[in-house]
Amino acid sequence: MRRVGILGGTFDPPHLAHLMIAEEVRLSLELEEIWFVPSQEPPHKTKAVISAQDRVEMVRLAIDGNPYFKLNTIEVDRVGKSYTFDTLNVLKNKYPDISFYFIIGADMVEYLPKWYKIEELIKMVTFVGVKRIGSQLNTPYSIELVDIPYVEISSTEIRNRIRENTSTKYFLPEKVIRYIKEKQLYEKG
After folding, report:
1. Fewest CB within a 10 Å sphere: which of 55, 75, 122, 123?
2. pLDDT tens for each residue of 25-49
3. Do the beta carbons of residue 99 and residue 61 sit within 8 Å?
4. Which is it for strands 98-105 and 69-71: parallel, antiparallel or unpaired?
5. Which of 18, 9, 6, 5 minimizes the C-alpha distance to 172?
6. What residues does 99 pair with on adjacent strands?
């Protein structure tokens, strides 16, 4: 069985902490690949600020150069809310030879009991919780825990910095910074 990690999110925009989390989990759990899965419309958040097309392109640029990172557009190709259960159901049927590891932040670990069809989902995938300072990671479910270096970067902070015309160097990959500038993304709002 191949072992593949899945890192989902709005990636609005994808930043260096996303890449670091993916790489640390890949190395720690000896995964063959990490699939980045941008969501169309996450059930637990408000809608993304920019289009799925731009977010997909930014993820493509962010992971370029890492042969272990792949882009999977299963959720943006679907209309409506993106439930992990639906995504994993399709992936498990399409790739029966892969064991999937679903990477979530500490905030989502504690939210797991509220996830759509969690009792079925927990049987389909291994959840990987990345530890953050201040999170207890209390959950009744079995999850793999991975310690990651503490880097506090948020997409909201990055969008604010862009609107305020403040540097995002060392927050975003250079290719993503160039794309945002070329497309004038996040400048208003």
Report:
1. 123
2. 999 999 999 999 999 876 655 678 8
3. no
4. unpaired
5. 18
6. 3
